[in-house]
Each structure stands twice: as C-alpha cells, then as structure tokens.
Amino acid sequence: MVLVSGSVQRSCKRFQIDFQCGSAPSPRPDVAFHFNARFDESCMVGNSFERGNWQHEQRKQDMPFRKGHPFEIRFLVTNGSFKVAVDGRHVFEFIHRIPLYRVEAISVSGGIEVASINFQGPVRSRLFGGRS
C-alpha cells in the first residue's frame, strides 16, 4: 500500500500521481497508473501511458478532494488493480494494463503540497473489500 498525505492548494486545477516504469525525464517512461484529479472537470481520471501514447481514459465524475484542505490517499496495489481511497472512502479502481513488476518510481505533480509518502507491506482491508 502507498499512502500519500498532503493538502490541496487553493489555486489547484489538477494534480496527478503516476506509478512509472522508470524515472528518466526523456523519453517519457511508461506509466502503469496515472491518477489525475481534475477540479476543472470535477472528475478523477485513471489511465496508462505506453510507448509514447496515452491509452483509454477511465473517468469518474466525483471529486473527493477540497481546495485548501488536507487529504490522505491510499493506493492499495493488488494482483489485479490499483484501488484508491481518499480520506477513508474508496473512490476509484483501475485494472492493471502494465505488469506491476515494471513500476520503479512514483511521480507527483500539480497543485498539491505533499507532506509524506509512505509504503506498507501487503494488507487486507475492509476498506477495499477485504481482498488484497
């Protein structure tokens, strides 16, 4: 599990957290999971980036974040998907398109201030349906 704690800047339009297959700035690495909160569209988007191309977006019309407020995002990484909870509420699931073993880095960008990023070993959680 990956836990990201921080706060949303009042001027935030979007922010993203990417589970990347490398960290070189160029060429852009593949992205196994692109989590993008879009205040300007009141939605969350999940996607992957492979061989220089974005794949099909998965959108959810929900905005669990509030500008100017703190948050905690939990990414539960299972064999089949990334499950996302914000402030204790399950909000998004993204089925793997790229094998997990390829993920080497996490990138955070956009209108948030990150207080911490923590990693925890395998867990079973009621929050995510009790399965890992």
UniProtKB/TrEMBL annotation:
It is found in: Cytoplasm; Nucleus; Secreted. CDD domains: GLECT. One of its GO terms (molecular function) is carbohydrate binding. Residues 1-120 form the Galectin domain. One of its GO terms (biological process) is mRNA processing. Pfam families: Gal-bind_lectin. Transmembrane segments: none annotated. Keywords: Acetylation, Cytoplasm, Differentiation, Disulfide bond, IgE-binding protein, Immunity, Innate immunity, Lectin, mRNA processing, mRNA splicing, Nucleus, Phosphoprotein, Repeat, Secreted, Spliceosome. GO terms for cellular component: cytoplasm; extracellular region; spliceosomal complex. This is Galectin.
